[in-house]
Description:
Blueprint (H helix, E strand, L loop, with lengths): L1 H12 L5 E7 L5 E11 L3 E6 L8 E5 H5 L3 E7 L4 E5 L2
Antiparallel strand pairs: 1-2, 1-5, 2-3, 3-4, 5-6
Amino acid sequence: MTKRLTEIKDSLDGQLGRRLMLKANSGRRKTIERSGFLAETYPSVFVIQLDQEEYAFQRVSYSYADVLTETVELTFLDEQADGTAWSSH
């Protein structure tokens, strides 16, 4: 599992600064969808800078395990075609 987490981190390292859509399961059948861009990656977590005009929080962070367990889904947007360029699953 550690190797898989490293692969997720390496993939996200190459996506820094890219716009994305975030879909996060927050429990009890509640799903949060937000937009922003991948701001930073750290050894255990990554940080997303949210679009400020839409949300009260400016930044959120998640662990790579959240992506592995599909608690968090990231869809990177292709700025030229407005389509999906990369997805976490």
